[in-house]
């Protein structure tokens, strides 16, 4: 072997070792993130009723699909009673930041007021929620869900249909624009909602609680988002999306009460699309 070749080999060895070391650190980091997420999901601080929904909502798979990390800055849109907040808050507490963009404090809706008050009490009294920053969100308003271009991720779970039913296409588009404003370039928008089959009339979105996946994609793209990936994590082939009281016929609402309860319980929660969008970097 020539002197030159021996020198090249000596140079190559540490570079290779460094490469393997960096790869190993990345794998360990990913594993730590998954473990932390699973710990949050398995936490006894979550209510039993919420944990019972995991089989339908697949929180670990869904959040991993969106690419969440323990040091992410995340905005959760309309958290309601905090089903996902019970997972996100402890997961992000030490190294990340969670904005909970709840109903506006000055809302005229008594339901919205009660929901927000209950959530605020939990932020005050539940140590797992102590680092949550509560902001406000409503379509067609001047609400600020987070400082502009500060968030790595905006997440909305089963909310799109509410905006559409109350304000139509304009409200949905405005909501997506607020998300776009809050996200950093390269940031992720994660959307989950009840799926209306594409063969059904658009009019069925008006009061069924189901939305067409194509509509959600069109609205997000109309404000500048790019569809990065879609997933069937939250699909349910047993759901026909055709029920007497819309999506609320199914669990967990079961709006028909005991009428055909076994039938709808057997179907489970709704069929849902899961979409990952990205705000372009330039």
Give the low-pLDDT segments.
2-13
* Helix/strand/pairing category: alpha/beta
Count of helices?
A: 9
Q: Span between N and C termini?
A: 50 Å
Instruction: Note the run of SSEs as H and E.
Output: HHHHEHEHEEHEEHEHE
> How many β-strand stretches?
8
Main sheet record = 8 strands, mixed
Overall helicity? 40-55%
Strand content: 15-25%
Q: So what's the overall shape? A: globular
Arithmetic mean of pLDDT: 92
Rounded to an integer, what's the Rg over CA atoms? 22 Å
Provide structural commentary:
The chain has 282 residues and is α/β, with parallel strands linked by helices. It has helices at residues 3-42, 48-51, 54-57, 59-66, 85-92, 110-125, 160-182, 213-222, 261-267, and strands at residues 73-77, 97-102, 133-136, 151-157, 183-196, 211-212, 226-231, 272-278. Strands 1, 2, 3, 4, 5, 6, 7 and 8 form an eight-stranded mixed sheet that branches. The longest helix has 40 residues, at 3-42. The N and C termini lie far apart (50 Å). Residues 2-13 have low confidence and may be disordered.
Descriptive tags:
8-stranded mixed sheet; disordered N terminus; 8 strands; 18% strand; globular; alpha/beta; 282 residues; 9 helices
């Amino acid at each position: 072997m020539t002197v030159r070749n021996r020198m090249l080999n000596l140079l190559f060895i540490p570079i290779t070792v460094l490469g393997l070391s960096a790869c190993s650190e990345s794998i360990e980091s990913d594993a730590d993130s998954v473990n932390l997420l699973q710990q949050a999901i398995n936490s006894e601080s979550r209510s039993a009723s919420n944990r019972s929904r995991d089989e339908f909502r697949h929180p670990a798979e869904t959040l991993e699909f969106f690419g969440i990390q323990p040091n992410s800055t995340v905005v959760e849109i309309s958290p309601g009673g905090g089903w996902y907040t019970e997972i996100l808050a402890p997961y992000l507490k030490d190294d990340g930041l969670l904005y909970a963009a709840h109903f506006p404090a000055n809302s005229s809706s008594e339901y919205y007021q009660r929901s927000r008050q209950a959530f605020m009490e939990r932020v005050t009294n539940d140590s797992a929620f102590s680092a949550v920053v509560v902001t406000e969100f409503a379509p067609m308003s001047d609400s600020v869900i987070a400082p502009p271009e500060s968030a790595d991720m905006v997440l909305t779970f089963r909310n799109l249909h509410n905006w559409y039913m109350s304000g139509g296409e304009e409200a949905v588009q405005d909501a997506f624009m607020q998300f776009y404003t809050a996200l950093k370039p390269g940031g992720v928008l994660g959307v989950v909602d009840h799926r209306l089959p594409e063969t059904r009339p658009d009019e069925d979105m008006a009061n069924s609680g189901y939305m067409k996946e194509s509509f959600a994609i069109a609205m997000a793209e109309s404000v500048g988002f790019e569809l990065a990936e879609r997933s069937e994590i939250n699909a349910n082939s047993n759901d026909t999306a055709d029920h007497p009281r819309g999506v609320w016929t199914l669990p967990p609402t079961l709006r028909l009460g005991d009428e055909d309860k076994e039938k709808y319980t057997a179907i489970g929660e709704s069929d849902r699309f899961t979409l990952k969008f990205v705000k372009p970097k330039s």
